[in-house]
Every structure is written in structure tokens, then in C-alpha cells.
Amino acid sequence: MARTGVWTWLREDVWEIPLRRYLALLVTAALVVGGWFGVGALAREDRSCAPGVERPEGSEECVGVSTSAYDFDRPQLREVIRAIDRENRSLKPGSYVTVALLEPFTASDPDNLGDVLHEMQGAYLAQYRANHESNRKSPAIRLVLANPGATGAHWEFTVDRLEEMTKSPDRLRAVTGVGMSTENNKRAVKELTKRGIPVIGSSITADNLANGQGGKDPFPGLARVSPTNTDEARALTSFADVTAGRALLVYDKPGDPYTRTLQKSFMKLLAGSPYEPQPFTPPTDRSEEGTTANTFWQIASLVCGTAPETDTILFAGRHTQLRQFINELGNRSCQHRKFTVLTGDEASYLTGDKELDRSALTHKLSVRYTALAHPDAWAEDGAKSGGSAADAAELAELVATAARRPVGPIGEVSLEDGQLIIAYDAMRLAVTGIQRATSKGRMVPRLADVGLQWPQVKGPLRVYGASGWICLDAHGNPYDKAVPIVELTPEGKARFVKIAWPEEKPPAKECLPPS
Hints:
- The protein is about 35% helix and about 15% strand.
- The protein is α/β, with parallel strands linked by helices.
């Protein structure tokens, strides 16, 4: 064989044919592997709900931080969310900082969802006022919605997202809202403040979700606009003149941060009572009915067995259980005896509770509670200090314009439960901190500087809230905050009775907490 022929044979039979086979095998393998990954990618379910919001593995709730008009599949929230989105989109890039409203936007309980709606309306109205009625003070305020889930179970996911937004063009500078004093919300606040993110609590009242207890500040950067349970209880008793020998305590066992601290406050008032406190154990999710009504039927019978002079029941529990208890008291055997139930701000939910037996309130039974705020509290400007009708009127005027553009519409508005008012004040406090932390020549404050503003919010630097003056002590707690005492009526309304004070009298005009 010629030399050329040998070379051709080697090339065609020895090298090229196997090479073509090897190449074919490689191409086939690549297609198989590519197909496998392609099928896997298609098989993976899309867990996203909206920008910044997704369903975690094992859950169907859409949680995270929404920066769009996404309404969490809750139609009643739709109008106010659209109003927030319009306001956000009107802001020029680089001109704003972000404040997040932390609430359970996927709540299914109607009472809780009504609370969320009102808090969102209040926060939005404060945002609108800051952007349009503050003499163009910078920075502008962008409002986003942070959802940790109906029970707060996904708080870690949401907190991680919020921290990311502090380092991005979102420029997150504060979190407001928080809602109820639950274990999950306590964990969320703990982690947010640990990461240096200022938090302004609107309706949290638990003593162990506050700084200054025992001289310690476990939540650095936390400020609140609502009194603690202890302050509410002190205000309530200064109004009602509770006598230990004539009162009985009914309490949630094991309780949560709100009910436990309310129970503790009430027990101090009942030192020396002849009656053993009566416990009840509700479901873990206290918005559920459970079988607690059976226990309340028994407790109602025990109430009838107390001495004739006993006329007061202190109730340390959530609103679902309070409603069950009231319904059972309405059917008590001793309806000839008069009783007054005294409790905390959770009773505000009952004004919209369709399961409440309102006829119970016609059977010599009254229910009075400490509200976070009430629209009639300052109707008559009789208080020499602590708040004013003018401060409350500013919000009322803003609410009146919110039925239509450019402010609204923002959905059905109600001030009666106080949630809109207190959320408005919390957002105003957040805006105050952001503006005061913004040094001259800068458009955006440093994150660390915002939470440092709270100890100076007092005296002439107080916030003139619609719920009353907000004068913070060195730990970020409101000093001698006005506490409206409200009575639940048979018509399902919240009738304002009187303003009470934790210090038994309004703060001095200087509004400077004592040492």
C-alpha cells in the first residue's frame, strides 16, 4: 500500500470513524442532560406572587415585602393599596426613603383583617401628609407592605427581605405597624432592632415588647405610640376605682405577651382579693373559636356564686375569647346582679364582631376598656394638656378628603376602633425620626441615626398626635399617654366615656418625663 493510501486508511478507518462516534455520543449525552435539567426547571413550581412576595416551601401564603399594587388576594384592601401605589409611583427616583408597614396582610379572621385595613389607611394618610403638606421637607416617604403571614410564622423571611432593602436603592429606614403583641411579632421586632432597623410600634402594648423594663433595652431603636399594658391598667383603675374585694380576674393560660402582661398588671390591682383568678385555655391561634365557650359557661356560673358586693370582672384575654365570655355572661343565672367587665384594647375589635350577642349588654352587663385612640376623645377641648381637638381635627380633615382623588379612595373608613388613628400617629413618628436624622446637605439619613432620635421626642420636640401628645422617655415609650376609656354599647358601638391617665392626671405642659 502506498504511503498516501496508508495515511488515508488511518484517517478514515482508525481515527475519524471512532471520532464521529464519540462526538455523536457526546452530543446525545448533552441533549439527555440538558433535557433532564430542562424538565426539572419546568417541574419546579413558580412560587412568586408579586415583586418581593412569594410562597415559601410548604406554605400557600404570599409573604415578603410588596412594592407594587399587589393586594394579597384581599379585596377589601385593594383601594388603599392602589392609593399607596399611586403615591409611590409619583415619587422621583433618588428623592425618597422607604418605610415598611409590618402587618398580617393575609389574615383570614375578619376582625384582624379589619384592623389591618385601618392601620394601612392610617399609615398611608400620614405618608400623604408628609409628602404633600410638610413644606417639601426631604426626603419623601415611600410606603411598602411587609407581610410575615397571618400568624407571623414567616417573620424570618420577611425580616431578611427588609434588611436587604436597607442596603439597596430602596433605602429602607424604618418599620412601623407590627400589630398585635404576639410571640412571632416579638421575635420579628427583636431581630429587626438587632440588625439596626428602627421599629415604631403602633398598637403593641405588651410590657415585654418594650424597652426600659428592669432598666434594660432589649430592642434598641424601638419606639412606641401606645401605652404599655401596665400603663393602660393604671389608667383604667384610676378611672374605675377597682377594689380588690369586689373584683374577680379571668385570664388566658398560658397566654401570650399581651395577655400575660395584662394579667400581671391586673393581679397587682387585686392583691388581697378573696377570689382565686379563673383561667381559661384557648387555641394556640387565638382567633379560632375552639371549645373555650364551655369554660366560660362554667366561669359565668362561678361569677354568680361570688359575694353580692362583687361587681367587677377583670378580663385578660384576646377579643375572640372576650366575645365568647360576654355571650355567656348574657345568659348567666344571676341576671338581677350588675357586673362591669374591664379589659384592654383588644375589646376594640368587638365593634365589628358579628358573633357578639349584643343583647347580653342589656342584661345589667357593661363592658369598658382602654382604647388606643377614639375620635371623640378630643371633641371637647377640655384637657389643659396631653392633646387637643386641633390635633385630632387635622386627621379628620384628611380623612374627609380621602373618599376621592388625589388622596383616595382608600376603602371604607372607620375611626371608631382607634386603629387608623394610632397607625397614623406611628407613621408620623417614623417620619419625624427620618426628617430629624437627615443632616443638612444630605437627602437621605443614615440608618443608624434614625433610631437615635426617639429619646429627644419630648417637650417642644413632641409629636402632636391625633391620639394625644407623644412624648417619649429615654427608652422610647410614651410618657403619661392619654388613654380613652370606652364602653361597648348594645348597638355594637364604642361610646367614649372619659380620658384617663397612667399618672392619674395629664402631663404638664412641658411634657418632660421625670427621672
